[in-house]
Amino acid sequence: MGLSRLAQEFAAEIKQHDWSDAPYRPDRAGHNRERDYEKSSKTPVLNSDETEVLRLNVMWVTAQVLAHAERTNFDVVEFAQACGVNTEKWAGGIQRGLRIRNGRCVKPGTWDELSDD
Description:
This protein is mainly alpha-helical. It has three helices and two strands, in the order αααββ. The protein has helices at about 5-15, 50-70, 75-80; strands spanning about 100, 105. The chain has a two-stranded antiparallel ribbon with strand order 1-2. Helix 1 packs antiparallel against helix 2. The model has no long low-confidence stretch (mean pLDDT about 85).
């Protein structure tokens, strides 16, 4: 199907960002500890599994909005792959991360509301 330009750009930012220390510091877009001028050995770092879960959750939050906005033109697995999520590790679970009711993605910021906008 192919991702929209907006989905591709979200995915590129998510993939580029170094999520390993994200819970411990406010980072600019595209943070990368290898390139940062301000390096701190005191900043805790997540292990690879924790980092993967954080990236997965960021992908899902973004995907919820895109899936609602793009309706049938959005493939969450393709988006997850573009974000750098290991879709083989999470096989079968990628789609379950979205809030779907009656076959439709619920309105962002809600749990049960369906929206026609």
